[in-house]
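== Folding the chain ==

***
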Amino acid sequence: MPPWSDPHVRARLRHAGGALAGIPADAAPHRDTASERTRHPSTVCGPTTPPPSRKILAKHRTARQQAILLVARAARDDRPMDEDDPLSALRHLQPRPSLPDDKTRLLLEAGLEAVTAAFQDRPQSQEMPLAVVWPSQDSVMERYRERVGDRRVTRAVMEYRWKCMPDFYADLFAWALHPSHYAVEQQLSQEAPGVVEAVPDFGDAAFRIARADLDTVFGTPILRIKLLICVSHPVPKAFDESLARFYEAATTWWSGAYASVIAAMGLELRPEIPLRTFATLMTAIEEGLALRYLARPAEFGHDLDALADTLAKGALALLKGSTQNPGDDTTLAAFFTGRLTAPPAP
């Protein structure tokens, strides 16, 4: 079904002057040339009106081009994302049918490199900035010229694709958080059950998983950016879709990992704590501590091992309260009531 058959697109066409351009709101656009209008003047001016002037035709063609570009943009916005193609996540490109292309990808890579530069080459004792430093257009273009090896490239290559830098930032974030870029995070969740089985001491296993997780968060610039965007108020709507997609994927991966770990321990989750809720709580502990470290690394002695130790202890405490022996129907509230009211040990 063509995009212009959708009622919402037709409404946008009418608002953009589609009917003025000769495109019916309920039909596909047709070619609009001077020769066709000369042969069929009734399509524009009625059977008794003389052919329009060149100036009027030019105005009508401009309106038609704008309407067709609007259709192209609407079709791109409604296009399903391809999980194998990061460029399919872009939603703010100018509505040009030939985009996205290799130049678009190189511009995004240059933008991510510019963002990454704000997190690199910092002494371990220096506090990390608790803010996203979005690159300027000049900064992105400088890195783009280096990538293509041509100093003569102008900013037009970027302005052809995005009408403003906020649109570029939104697409940069969506592109960087595309599912095809989740490989490191996904691999970590897949390896976690094996670490638990291989390391005899469960506390040591929890520490190793926590340290690997933090290395991933702090070592991957886009994941650090993700943390900082989450605490912005309000979260920009342009980032909503990317964040939702990332958390859905991460919750799915880690739910499987936690299910395997809990089963290997011979335990099960309490009935009132679903697996996805447990995974969400674990993620909240990790992200909360990571943000605390970004804001006050001195509190942990500028030492990721100290942060990983805190994260491991929090995970073990959550695991203790959330699990039970198979067949035990004690609720979480009853469990803690019993612990609080139990007589002291002799």
DSSP finds 14 helices and two strands in the chain.
